[in-house]
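Quick start: what a row looks like.
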Amino acid sequence: MKNYILLLLSGFILTNDQYPTQNQIDEALNQSMQIIWEEAMRAKVAVRQATPRIREELLDNLCSSAPTTSFVTHADLSDSLTSATNTTASVFVSTDNQTTWIENNEVAPLNQVGYETTWGATTATSGGDNVHWYLSGSLDSESLGLGFGQMIISQSPHNENNIWPPPSNLYGLIASDINGETDAGQDIVGMRATYSGDITTGITNLYASMDLDGSCCDEGGFFGPWNLYSIAIVNPDATESPTEYAYVFGNGGFGQIYPGIYKIDGDLTTGQVNGFEVLSTDFQYSTSGNSFQATSALDIIVNDSGWGVWPNSFNGVAIVGANVAADLSIVTGGTPEIKDLSDVGVLVMTTQIQNGNTSPVLSNFIYEDGIASVVYTDAENNLATNHELMIEDMVFIMTPDAHTYSEGVTFSADIGSGGGNVELYFSDGAASVTLQEDLGGGSACQLAGDANADGTVNVIDIVLTTNLILCSDCPDNYNACSDLNGDMMINVLDIVAIVNQILGL
């Protein structure tokens, strides 16, 4: 019966010369894809211009303390990026396996020696041995000569179990948009994304969500309008490629458009679309609630010849949302209408995860020309929340020469000339490590044989030196005043020397 009614309606339209021809349908669809392609290319250009600074600076040397109640995060930014106006950053921290997230938007420059370009934040958590965290940055593209408003460049939670559809706690916001620009069901208010897999072993799936101001999604009717919802995906590093990809939902154009992963090719010289095709229908989508969500194996897109090199320089993609509508006005020369566009967002498909902790290691202590230095190495790339050198009643804060802690970073301090015993104290926030060293000479020993430094060499010093020999495995079993022969060992030869000194021999 339904088909019969549709046939009668089609006949009615045909008799009134209002039925669009195949050429008109094709042209309307081509113009719709033209709009999506143009926005994707503009997004590619914008992100390509911004990401040399973003990927190398905003998300450079990301590191944190070990899981702790006062969780510290660092990221290095350069002057060129911070010169952009309205540059902000937020860190998101979870200690309950990503069930909930603590957002800390008080990320700010440290302005400390050794951390001149470092932005940091301390986030109060409930503690525990497990932590997930990611960084999100926003900058004013206008100040970089780009016309895309506030651009968000963000990592995201890690959808490690491939949950579909992902709950809100597994999405990261990558673009926002003001509401009230069009009908609620087509009015984009935000774009979110996440991923599964791991960049070292291969990203498996990309997940994206277009969030609307009203219920999703108005397909339109037989007579139109025919609504097209698209989440465009581009590789900014593919500088010569005129190709973009999109998760598309629609059911219009007289059956010519349907849900799928679309590939749209164009000509960068003319700015015109050359054609489009359904790359694959092997994807999942949802239009429930106020969101159009979609996911697919990332390989479907990145293995296509038009994508470019993958992984790219920042392990990410640029995403922009576009909603387009066409109707029967195409019969009389009408064109598709842009209903709404989102801001451009960049998803960096990485998340910092630490489960458990190992203590950092101090090694290669050197004292030369008044400069004391030591190498701090942390297997989890945890920063040093404490990095101090203590000599007598003075405390020196040691300065790092880099922030790649898993590779080993040299910390140093100018402590001046002289001697004595020093103690180095470092912590990754959860575990601490100390190192005791003798600088040699100077104030290390004022009177040879005076083990207790009371100004007199007597039997008490013999007892103290003997105790050092009997506790050879004690970490502090060396005393420069007991080492009378200067062989850096405390043994019976030193006892004999102290006795002889007392006897005046």
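That is the whole record. The radius of gyration is 33 Å. The chain has two domains: 2-39+152-353, 356-503.
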